[in-house]
Amino acid sequence: MNLKQIDTIKEKIQPILSEKHLLLWDLSFFGGSPAVLTILIDGQDHQAIRMNQISEVASLISDALDKVEPDPFPDRYNLDISSPGIDRSIKTDEHLDWALGQPIKLNLFEKIDGSKSAEGILKSFSDLEISLEVSPAEVKNFPREKISKISLNQEA
Predict the structure, then answer these.
(1) What is the pTM of this model?
(2) pLDDT digits 0-9 by tens, 40-52
(3) What is the pLDDT of residue 156?
(4) How many C-beta atoms lie closer than 10 Å to residue 4's C-beta?
(5) How high is the pLDDT of residue 30?
(6) Which residues does 32 contact at the CB level (< 8 Å), separation at least 6?
(7) Distance between CA 131 and CA 87 in Å, rounded?
(8) How far apart are the C-alpha atoms of 31 and 33, rounded to whole Å?
(9) Is the predicted pLDDT of residue 133 greater than 80, yes or no?
(10) How far from 113 is each of 40, 83, 108, 142, CA to CA, in Å?
(11) Which pLDDT value is given to residue 72?
(12) How far apart are CA 57 and CA 62, in angstroms?
């Protein structure tokens, strides 16, 4: 899926989510047979959402996407709408900004200090690095280019 398709989908679903007081957390499309369009939605202020909210918005989003011309998905696909969950993936700077002061987990492409993961409280971030408080007396910086995945860590 290209950026134009993503923007088109966001443009079509954003009014629906806003009307229902929900937020778009993430959107992804994975090819396959059939392909899957996954839309992760969250409650206002990132509070938990209920299954009936997901069910209600799913039919509205499906109807809206069926009316898009030209069809961004000419082939068959499955629509998956769900919550990002308690250990949600953090992919954007907006997500990182929301997660400041919260426990997160980093998965790394290669070992740093003998480990391919790190956990701590997100203290700050920039285009180049993520800073975690790994203990009350220690803040460590991790180069963003070495981070494969960031997620909220509610087990901490």
Answers:
(1) 0.82
(2) 999 887 778 889 8
(3) 59
(4) 9
(5) 86
(6) none
(7) 19
(8) 7
(9) yes
(10) 34, 34, 11, 11
(11) 75
(12) 8
